[in-house]
Structure formats: structure tokens, C-alpha cells
Amino acid sequence: MSALIACHPAPAPSDWRAAMRDLITSPAALFELLQLSADQLGWSEQAARDFPLRLPRAFARRMQPGDPQDPLLLQVLASQQELLTAPGFSSDPTGETGAANPQPGIIHKYHGRVLLLVTGSCAIHCRYCFRRHFPYADNQNSRAEWPAALAAIAADRSISEVIFSGGDPLVAGDEPLRELVQALADIPQLRRLRVHTRLPIVIPERVTAQLLETLSSSRLQTVMVVHSNHANEIDPQVAQAFARIRGAGITLLNQSVLLAGINDTAAALIALSERLFEAGALPYYLHLLDKVAGAAHFDVSEARARELHREIAARLPGYLLPKLVREVAGAPAKVLL
Ligand SMILES: *Cc1c(COP(=O)(O)O)cnc(C)c1O
Ligand code: SF4
User: Fold this and answer.
1) Could you tell me if 37 and 116 lie in one domain?
2) 138 pLDDT tier (thresholds 50, 70, 90)
3) Does residue 323's CB lie within 6 angstroms of at least one atom of ligand 1?
4) DSSP 10
5) What pLDDT was estimated at residue 143?
6) Could you tell me which residues are beta bridge partners of residue 256?
7) In the chain, fewer beta carbons within 10 Å around the N or the C end?
8) Residue 326: pLDDT band by 50, 70, 90 thresholds?
9) Is 4 part of a structural domain of the chain?
10) Which of 94, 96, 134, 334 to mutate to test the pocket of ligand 1 (most atoms within 8 A of CB)?
11) Could you tell me the CATH number of the domain that includes residue 108?
12) What number is the average pLDDT over the span 62-75?
């Protein structure tokens, strides 16, 4: 066990389970915590019915009470702006419900790597999420359905990397994940395992010793791609979780979404890259928003995105510059801008 793990003892599994049971789901609890009213927040009951509030307390504690524009708050706020329809914004902007999803539990769009939808649920509901309209009911992928997904992966010799996705795959428990990783390690053509997750950011206690043991002890090389959008998300507990992940020999990257009013300034993007690196993660992608219905108020134009990216490229070392990308239905990879 490395020194890094030793100086930040891993939390018990019960800690993250307790945090998952104690999510903020009632608007009244959110208003009280922030000392703001529904009116001050522009809260919409209807938007919250369409996609419910779901917010871990550890994430909420990083918000500034009294600030209706807090960049963390805006990521989870069911706002009246979501009810506005906008041309070009649809419920399946990435084409995930069609031909790329022939087998429940798998999304195979790019050569060599396949998304395995480990679970349909998340610890947090991000209002801009392109999966807010995804038919999770068809992709619940309970443990009982994993064998069929694994068989489909095993049958395709072109696949070298499996990406745990969802939902948030780390909502699944340590024991099912251990079984899944073991089964994948038995598929000879696989070389890498990737985990796309927001849990180390929103509930850092999720980074348990058993999870790290599972991810670091198989023959597969493991990459974790966390998701944070603003420097304020990376507090000391998150930095300790990053240190444990890195201490287990796992490559740690971050992806962000460019979001109007949240991180669409050069200063915010630079602060995020710097903070991520301080905490031990490298910036990977900066995504343009997927044009999902209800999220038009987060949209940043492609012209503005390019300008911002040029500005930060002129200020940051190359290794702290995320790649600016957008997803284009039918394209063979994320499209670099
Ligand atoms: C983003 C994505 C991947 C991973 O793409 P990378 O460029 O390798 O990070 C794989 N499959 C799907 C369906 C994706 O959306
Ligand atoms: S899939 Fe990711 S972005 Fe979407 S709601 Fe879950 S954690 Fe947020």
C-alpha cells in the first residue's frame, strides 16, 4: 500500500451508503440550506417534476449561501428557464437510443471502446445532462442483465476498452463491481478499463479501499475520468479522494461541460485546470453542451467556445489545456474543435 493511501485512510463503505440515503431531494431543504426563497432562485416545480432534484450534502456544502448565481447551485437548480423550448434542442441529441444501442446496457459508437451502462441512476442530477431524457427503464441493467452485455463484449474482437458509464457506475456497490471487473479481465481482447464517474466529486467517501483494490488489482490498465465543472467543486475531501485514486496507480482525468453562467469565462476555466492539477487530476475534455431539451440556458455558442479555448491556451501549459470537443451523432469520435 502506498504512502498516499496510508496518510489518507480510506473511508468505510457505510460512509458513502449513508450519504446516498441522505441526499437533498426536497426543494425546501435546499432553500433553507442556501437561505434563499423559491422566487429568488427562479425555482420551477414543473422542471423538478420532469427531472427531480437530487443533491449530495457534501456537494451542497461547497455552495455559497445567499448566492443565487453560485456555480455549483446552478448545476442542480430546477429553473424556470428549463421550460423554454429552443430550436435544435431535443431529447436524444447524441443518438443513443437508436442504432448505437442495439443491446440493452451497451452503447457502442466508437472503434475499440464500448460503454457499459452499469446502472441507470446517479447520486446527483445535473440539469444539463444529455441523459435526462434517456430511457433508463430499458437500460436498468441490473446484475442479472450483465451476463448478456458481457457476452456481447466478449464476442467482439475489436473491443479493447470497456468504459463503465450510466448513470453513474459507482452507484453500484463494491461487490458487484468486483465481480464485473473480474469477468471483464477474463475477456482476452480487453486491455483497458475506464470508469466515467462523478461520485468522487460529489460523494468523495465513495472512493473506498475495496473499490480501489478492485480497480487496481486486475490485469486491465485502469483510467478514471471524473466530472467537475468548476474549481469550487474540488475541496480538500475531493483532493484526498484523488490522492487515494492515484495512490492505487489509477490514471486520473477530468471532463467538464462548458456551461453558460457557470464556467464560461477564461478565469473560471483556468482556475479549474489549476485546481484539478493541484489535486492530482489532468484536464481531458471540455465538452460543448449536448443540445438537450431543457438545457438551452446553459448553451455557449461554438464561436464563443473557440474564443475561450484560445484564451486559455495562451495562458496555460499544454498539459493543463482540455481538448474542446463536441459530440456529433454518427461521427467516428468526439469532434475536436
Ligand atoms: C465519449 C464516448 C466514448 C469515449 O470517447 P473517448 O474519446 O475515447 O474518450 C466512447 N463511447 C461513447 C459512446 C462515447 O460517447
Ligand atoms: S450522468 Fe453524469 S452529468 Fe448526467 S446526471 Fe449523472 S452525474 Fe450528472
Assistant:
1) no
2) very low
3) no
4) P
5) 72
6) 286
7) N
8) very high
9) no
10) 334
11) 3.20.20.70
12) 98
